[in-house]
């Protein structure tokens, strides 16, 4: 199957290793992956700030880059959710619709489309999982504590296939980290406080890494961890699933 | 145009297209294997007490001995003895002195501990709220599983006032510390008869 | 109305967080309430079905609201109740004032009604020289302190017991330094029972109004609404017109959801059904619009009118828990307030839809399934389109959009400015750089993913 690799702008610019791990993982699992070279951004930062009207050019650019793939896969729940909910291009409505229906966040693609049952991965560390909100509540990557429905978790299912990994969940398993796009700067005080509280909850489990499916959340948590001189590191789930330590 | 006309006109202009009412399917609702046990457990969890009795004999004795002692008790249950039926004329000030009120409940709800009281069962609307302590008697057969069942059993608009009452008055407005006895009754004991 | 009223949410929140131990306490206390709600919700296998029923009943009611209001009015009048209609807050306040003035009333008790907070009733009556006594314990505490409530169910949740103790020492002459909640509640009981007994007029809110019977239901745990209404000669019940439900049987759905969602209780202690005034009593209902019919006309936002004021969205909101209710500078705070208040005053409340990470927890705890976080997103679009957003924000995001629409320029900017994150202008355009204040920047990598890909993969 032909997979278009969607690497969100901030991953492209700041966390290339997440893109590399995603690409290598998909190829290991037998996908024919291409990375359209003129991609930039899904438009979410503008739209979530109230400027959806400004993201029209991003939409156009996205469709011209990603038309024609069987699936589009990206290592970011929130960017994928934005595309699913808001990608519209008037002149190319059919192509935009195809993309909305076939764009997947990495872990849901692995579980739901590739139906991965085992991984040749090893990561012998204590790891805390951060459930990013848009992936969890928007894309239903896992059940949520608010609802009275059967429990499941696609990221946990995949992490359980990793040799040596000891998974620890925080006491509040699905509280927001406070990144929230431009919220992180326009509501700086609340944003940082939320991040500090998430970290403290994970730290109670004596973990070495915090992982998750959204680099944006991890970038925010990493910024706080580093400022406070913590030994805890952040790592994207793609890097764990692709690891062979 | 009056406010009434303006408001109604604006609502008519702005309301969405008519959508259907859902039908409430009682088969989709929780079932309890033991209604009495469920009722007792819930009521205790919200600060009330329960006593199961075959008949009213011992409660009648208790009431008589309290009357004899000179406690200001009000009885609204014929089976327990003389009924206080001139309550309507009592002022709030007078009712505030009532130590214990004995009331008959109509229906009790297993899922939440609530009891439906008609105004006629209270004698005075203020009584169940202003008395210091409350005793309610309920027939075992009148315990229903949920609020859906309860509303089928009662006629909530039959009298001028009625209440679902669940436990003693309480508050947690100071640091979320639960305190029983906010403004209303400081205790509730429910006697389950039969 | 709030002492923070001139501050926008972000600034007021930053002040709140300055006291970190108190912020932690506030967060943990409300999280505990959320956990009690979870326990109650998860105790009913039909929970999700109940939410669906509640949502459908409310959707239906909104779609037939004019007819239900007329039916309600006529039944209530048949029951001997006097029905008033108020187009806005001012009219609501004037109607109540006229009743008070007509009967020359001096002693008034009031139980919790967020509508009267929304309308500023207490302040209005105060200007007329009339004092009302708030009788909900939490509301009495904040009234003594001359503060607005910070939460619609737990009005004094921003206060610690020593604050209450100090307040009661000053106003009720309790022992200085006695912080025992039992002792303080008992003092309030004695004080307020006196007020109930001497009151001439009681004002209450309305939780549900029943079209079929013309009755209304008021829910409390303390019993204060009943103590007031049954003791006073006159009872005025104030309701926003969205409190309507079709039939008494629908109360079962809402009463099962309300307290479980609010505090985790299976039901409030008292769910009082008022239909007729008692012998010799006068009973009034004031039906209020105050912007609601306008909200009904906004297709994207009308279902906010389904709200039953349980505050589950407050308790679950990670932003609310860490910023306190006063930072929302409105009568109804929290996520639901942030989608209701822009309808009342867009300019004054333009900051509120941005006081959220859009995490979506609110929509999923909501017992009537209001899509709160989606509406927050939609309000942002409306507020930007109507010009209520700062120009600096606008300039930054426009620049960003310009860049991201042009792949060549995007890559150039990335290369030139990765180290300072020039690509993300909202981060560095501000002189003080709010990202860096408490967070490190990501370390700039040697090459972007695209560069790596071209070097390693591209055939």
UniProtKB/TrEMBL annotation, chain A:
A Pfam family this chain is assigned to: CCG
InterPro entries per record: Cys_rich_dom
MF term (GO), any: oxidoreductase activity
Span of domain Cysteine-rich: 3-84, 127-221
GO cellular component: cytosol
Name of this chain's protein: L-lactate dehydrogenase complex protein LldE
Automatic annotation (TrEMBL), chain B:
InterPro entries, per the entry: FTHF_cligase-like_sf (IPR024185), LUD_dom (IPR003741), NagB/RpiA_transferase-like (IPR037171)
Pfam family, one: LUD_dom
Superkingdom of origin: Bacteria
All residue ranges annotated as the LUD domain in the record: 93-193
Protein name per Swiss-Prot or TrEMBL: L-lactate dehydrogenase complex protein LldG
Source organism of the structure: Lacibacter cauensis
From TrEMBL, chain C:
BP-aspect Gene Ontology terms: lactate metabolic process
Keyword tRNA-binding recorded: no
Gene Ontology MF terms: 4 iron, 4 sulfur cluster binding; metal ion binding
Keywords assigned: 4Fe-4S, Electron transport, Iron, Iron-sulfur, Metal-binding, Repeat, Transport
Short name of any one Pfam family annotated for the protein: Fer4_8
InterPro entries referenced in this protein's UniProt entry, alphabetically: 4Fe4S_Fe-S-bd (IPR017896), 4Fe4S_Fe_S_CS (IPR017900), FTHF_cligase-like_sf (IPR024185), Helical_ferredxn (IPR009051), LUD_dom (IPR003741), LutB/LldF (IPR004452), LutB_C (IPR024569), NagB/RpiA_transferase-like (IPR037171)
Sequence ranges assigned to domain 4Fe-4S ferredoxin-type in this UniProt record: 297-327
Keyword Metal-binding appears in the UniProt entry: yes
PANTHER family, alphabetized: LACTATE UTILIZATION PROTEIN B
Protein's recorded name: L-lactate dehydrogenase complex protein LldF
């Amino acid at each position: 199957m032909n997979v278009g690799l969607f690497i969100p702008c901030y991953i492209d610019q700041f966390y290339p290793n997440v893109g590399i791990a995603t690409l290598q993982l998909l190829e290991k699992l037998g996908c024919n992956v291409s990375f359209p070279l003129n991609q930039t951004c899904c438009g979410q930062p503008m739209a979530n700030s109230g400027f959806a009207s400004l993201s029209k050019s991003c939409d156009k650019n996205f469709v011209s880059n990603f038309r024609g793939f069987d699936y589009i896969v990206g290592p970011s729940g929130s960017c994928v959710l934005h595309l699913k909910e808001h990608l519209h291009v008037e002149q190319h409505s059919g192509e935009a619709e195809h993309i909305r229906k076939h764009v997947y966040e990495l872990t849901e693609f692995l579980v739901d489309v590739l139906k991965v049952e085992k991984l040749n991965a090893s990561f012998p560390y204590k790891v805390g999982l951060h459930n990013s909100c848009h992936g969890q509540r928007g894309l239903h990557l896992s059940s949520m504590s608010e609802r009275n429905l059967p429990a499941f978790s696609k990221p946990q299912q995949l992490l359980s296939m990793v040799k040596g990994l000891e998974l620890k969940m925080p006491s509040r398993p699905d509280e927001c980290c406070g990144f929230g796009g431009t919220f992180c700067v326009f509501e700086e005080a609340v944003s940082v406080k939320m991040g500090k509280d998430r970290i403290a909850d994970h730290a109670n489990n004596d973990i070495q890494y915090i992982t998750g499916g959204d680099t944006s959340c991890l970038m925010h948590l990493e910024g706080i961890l580093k400022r406070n001189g913590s030994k805890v590191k952040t790592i994207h789930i793609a890097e764990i699933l692709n690891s062979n330590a | 145009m009056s406010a009434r006309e303006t408001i109604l006109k604006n609502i008519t202009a702005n309301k969405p297209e008519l959508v259907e009412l859902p039908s409430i399917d009682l088969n989709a609702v929780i079932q309890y294997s033991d209604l009495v046990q469920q009722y007792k457990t819930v009521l205790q969890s919200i600060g009330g007490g329960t006593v199961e009795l075959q008949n009213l004999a011992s409660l009648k004795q208790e009431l008589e001995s309290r009357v004899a002692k000179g406690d200001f008790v009000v009885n609204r249950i014929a089976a327990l003895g003389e009924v206080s039926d001139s309550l309507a004329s009592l002022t709030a000030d007078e009712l505030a002195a009532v130590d214990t009120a004995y009331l008959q409940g109509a229906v009790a709800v297993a899922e939440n501990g609530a009891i439906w009281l008609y105004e006629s069962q209270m004698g005075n609307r203020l009584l169940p709220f202003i008395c210091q302590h409350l005793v309610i008697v309920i027939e075992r057969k009148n315990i229903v599983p949920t609020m859906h069942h309860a509303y089928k059993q009662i006629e909530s608009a039959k009298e001028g006032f009625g209440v679902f009452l669940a436990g003693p008055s309480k508050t947690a407005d100071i640091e979320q510390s639960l305190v029983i006895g906010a403004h209303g009754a400081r205790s509730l004991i429910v006697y389950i008869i039969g | 109305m709030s002492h923070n009223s001139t501050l926008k949410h972000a600034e007021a929140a930053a002040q709140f967080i300055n006291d970190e131990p108190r912020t932690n306490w506030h967060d943990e206390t409300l999280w505990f309430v959320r956990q009690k709600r979870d326990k109650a919700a998860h105790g009913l296998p039909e929970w999700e079905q109940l939410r669906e029923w509640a949502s459908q009943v409310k959707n239906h009611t909104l779609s037939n609201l004019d007819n239900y209001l007329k039916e309600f009015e006529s039944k209530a009048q048949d029951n001997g109740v006097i029905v008033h209609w108020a187009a806005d807050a001012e009219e609501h306040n004037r109607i109540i004032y006229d009743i008070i003035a007509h009967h020359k009333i001096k002693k008034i008790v009031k139980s919790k009604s967020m509508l009267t907070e929304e309308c500023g009733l207490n302040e209005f009556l105060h200007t007329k020289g009339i004092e009302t006594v708030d009788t909900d314990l939490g509301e009495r505490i904040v009234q003594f302190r001359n503060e607005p409530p910070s939460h619609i169910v737990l009005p004094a949740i921003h206060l610690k017991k020593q604050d209450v103790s100090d307040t009661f020492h000053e106003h009720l002459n309790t022992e200085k330094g006695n912080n025992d909640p039992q002792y303080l509640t008992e003092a309030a009981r004695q004080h307020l029972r006196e007020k109930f007994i001497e009151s001439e007029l009681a004002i209450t809110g309305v939780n549900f109004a029943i079209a079929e019977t013309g009755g209304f239901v008021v829910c409390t745990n303390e019993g204060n609404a009943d103590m007031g209404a049954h003791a006073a000669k006159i009872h005025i019940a104030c309701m926003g017109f969205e409190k309507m439900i079709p039939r008494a049987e629908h109360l079962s759905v809402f009463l099962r959801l309300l307290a479980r969602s609010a505090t985790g209780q299976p039901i409030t202690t008292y769910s009082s059904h008022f239909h007729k005034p008692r012998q010799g009593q006068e009973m009034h209902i004031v039906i209020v619009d105050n912007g609601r019919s306008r909200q009904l006309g906004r297709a994207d936002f009308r279902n906010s009118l389904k709200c039953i004021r349980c505050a589950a969205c407050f308790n679950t909101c990670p932003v609310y828990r860490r910023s306190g209710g006063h930072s929302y500078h409105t009568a109804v705070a929290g996520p639901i307030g942030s989608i209701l208040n822009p309808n009342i005053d867009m300019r004054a409340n333009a900051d509120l839809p941005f006081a959220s990470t859009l995490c979506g927890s609110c929509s999923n705890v909501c017992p009537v399934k209001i899509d709160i976080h989606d509406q927050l997103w939609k309000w942002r679009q409306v507020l930007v389109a109507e010009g209520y957003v700062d120009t600096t924000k606008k300039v930054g995001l426009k620049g960003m959009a310009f860049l991201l629409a042009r792949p060549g320029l995007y890559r150039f900017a990335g290369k030139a400015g990765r180290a300072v994150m020039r690509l993300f202008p909202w981060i560095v355009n501000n002189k003080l750089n709010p990202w860096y204040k408490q967070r490190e920047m990501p370390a700039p990598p040697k090459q972007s993913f695209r560069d790596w890909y071209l070097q390693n993969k591209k055939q």
